[in-house]
Request: fold
Amino acid sequence: MFVGTGRFRLYAAVAAGSFRRFATYRIATVAGVFTNTVFGVILTYTYIALWDEKPGLGGYDQAQALTYVWLGQALLTTVAVMGGGFEDELMARIRTGDVAIDLYRPADLQAWWLAGDLGRAVFQLLARGVAPMAFGGLCFQLALPGDVLTWLAATVAVLLGVVVSFALRFLVALSAFWLLDGAGVAQIAWLASLFFSGMLLPLNVFPGALGEIARALPWSALIQVPADVFLGKHRGADLLATYAFQAGWAVVLLTAGRLLQAVATRRVVVQGG
Amino acid sequence: MAELLRHDQEGPAPTGRTGGRAGPRGLADGAPDRPLARARDGLRAYRMISAMWIRSTMAYRASFAMTALGNFAATALDFAAILLMFSQVDALGGYRLPEVAFLYGAAATAFGLADLAIGSMDRLGRRVRDGTLDTLLVRPAPVLAQVAADRFALRRLGRVTQGALILGYALVALDLTWTPLKVLLIPLMLVSGAAIFMAVFVAGGAFQFLAQDASEVQNAFTYGGNTLLQYPPSVFGKDLVRGATFLVPIAFVNWLPGLYVLGRPYPLGLPSWAAFTPPLVAVACCALAGLAWRAGLRSYRSTGS
Reply:
């Protein structure tokens, strides 16, 4: 996938457009922040109860566990744990046949939607991530990193998480070529994502083999990995290995998406007249 | 557009069959008709619209099976999180697993019933925004019934089933001395709880007339409320419990009656007869939500596009 400067400008414009599109719905954004904050408060109390009962669970002290809660709320929409980025739209375009127009465009289908999803993610990180995190930090004792480098390292991990999340959802969206109504697949996908991303409970707390498996799956790149980077669990060479884990899954899944797209566009006749 | 057409095909049927009894005079805005007749009209419209959506869902059976299963599994995940917690500890906030499962099952079943019945209310904001609410206003059926039945999602039976299974497990696993009152309290709790959650859904819908884009705020009280009730009140701060008791009285869904069944005191020191008040609270909530809905509908101005 060679990207020239002209191409780069195109995808940057798509990303910027997507950012502006999400930025238009201000009341919806405020409502989302409110809801994330309410959930954050509820989860905080359950985590306090859990870590009171068993201090040091999963290698976190209580402040770190609470930081994990608020990171989860801050990243929920950014890494689209429960879906809700572009995939509904792409599935609708596949169902109606509009995707035929997308395939005619002088732009790559996957890169086009990836650019749009990155624009969305940056907006949601700023608009829906910062406020709940600030609220959590003001109301509860959190373990926020003291140095700028850790903040930067965590931001990189979040961006890699967004790409992995995109690659997974792109595969989900393509299923509509065969099923037409992709709602079932989308739901099963967000279930897996909710459970294995660490959104429900840190994957470090999962017992035995389940924990081992969960930490090796791509979904852990969405919440668990960025959270651990933020909490300073990965430093130096370990940090690079962590990035490699995320980037590795991103490459594998993006490649799978391209292969599936090639099969879909060759075999499937688009609906419509 | 296809969606509107499908509505419209169903549209003429009610007037045709009633021979003008309900007639178009019951213009959706709550004309001072006999309330009982209006309620009957509303229920009938609700039944017909939801039946239509069930038929339409069944056109994609594979997808229905998957989404129903997904709905079941999604709610089961909540409980999986609780099980994972209990794989590490023996008690949470002083409550053992069967007790938490009891609170969880009661909340999930009550919420599941409300969600199945009128969970589509959060789509109202979208209808206000794109102007399709106008179509509902000119039909000879109460708007509330139409909005509540809009996109009726049978897959939500998955949530009810899951909640009921956990409640069943808890009732078997709990070692309680049952009294007739406690037995009576279980169905009472589920029905009143569902009604309280429905009131929250309707009030949330009314709020969306004002803040069309803010449907997510509603989630904080519906899904958020459900999550809150899945844990014992001893886990939460006093202020949060106060808010859930007196401000948005979801504590009456399962905490107050549930703690009576479990033989535990309520954290705010409420008298034990408070465990039997959920039906009254439910009626009051529904009445208030109805008033809020009416005010919201009256304040509605079409987008005009």
